[in-house]
Amino acid sequence: MSPELELATHAAREAGALLREHFESDLTVDEMQAHDIKLALDVESQKLIEGLILERFPDHAIYGEEGLAGDQSSETQWIVDPIDGTVNFFYGIPHFCISIAMRQGGELKIGAIYDPMMDEMFAVDFEGPATRNGKPISPSNRSELKDAIITVGFSKSKESIEVGAKRYKDFAYRVRKTRMMGSAALALAYISCGRLDAYIEEMISIWDIAAGQLMLERGGGSVVLTPSPFGEDKSGIVSNNGKLSFEGLV
Ligand code: IPD
Ligand code: CA
Ligand code: CA
Predict the structure, then answer these.
(1) What's the whole-model pTM score?
(2) Which of 25, 42, 69, 197 is the most buried (most CB within 10 A)?
(3) Residues with CB under 5 A from ligand 2 (ion)
C-alpha cells in the first residue's frame, strides 16, 4: 500500500472511531435546514483528519466540506468528507462513512471510504484494483435495467429535488428495485463491489464522490459528472457498473 493510501485509511479509521463513539449520543447541531443538518461533529471529524494529513504532509492542501486548510497552492490536494450521511447519523441510522481522496495536478490518485458501523474499508491506490477490507472488488455484470438496483440521492434544494423525483419515477418502472440510502460515497463504493448497479443524483459536491469515483472507474464502472444548474461548484452525477445503458432515461 502506498504511504498516501496508508495515511488516508488510517485517518478514516480514526475519524470512524470518533463517529462510532458519538453514534446515538447527544449531538450538538450547528445548523438545521429544510433538507440538511450540520453537526459540530462534522467539523470535529474534519479537524482530526486534517491534523493527521498535515502532520505528515504539511505542504499539501486540504479541500474539505468543512473548510480549507494547508497550502492551497499545492499540487497535491486531499478531498475530505468527514461524515458523508450526516442526516442518517443524526437520526441513528447506521449508514454513513468518511470519504478521503487525494488528487495531484487535478487527477484523482487514491481514495478511501470507511463505514465505521460495518467496519468496512473501501480503498483504491495509485494502481491495482479497488479493495474492500483488503480484498479486490469489482462491479456487477448486470447489463439489463430490469435486473438492476439503482440508488438515487435527493439533494438539498427544492429545484434539484423536483428534477430528481421525476427521474426517480422514470427509473422506478424500469429497474428491479430503487434504494435511497443517504450516503453518496457509500453508493459509489457499493457499485464498485457489485452490491448496487447505478447511482444518480442532481446536485453533489466533489467531496461526496471523489474517492468513490476513482474506485468505480478503476473497476470499469462509468461516472459522468455534469455541471449542475442548481449550485455553484456542484455537479450532477450519473454512474453505473459500466454495463448498463441509460439511453432515453438521463
Ligand atoms: C450528502 C449525502 C447524501 C446526498 C447529499 C449529500 P452529507 O452528504 O451524500 O446521500 O444525497 O447530496 O450532500 O451532507 O451527509 O455529507
Ligand atoms: Ca457528503
Ligand atoms: Ca459531509
Answers:
(1) 0.96
(2) 197
(3) 81, 84, 208
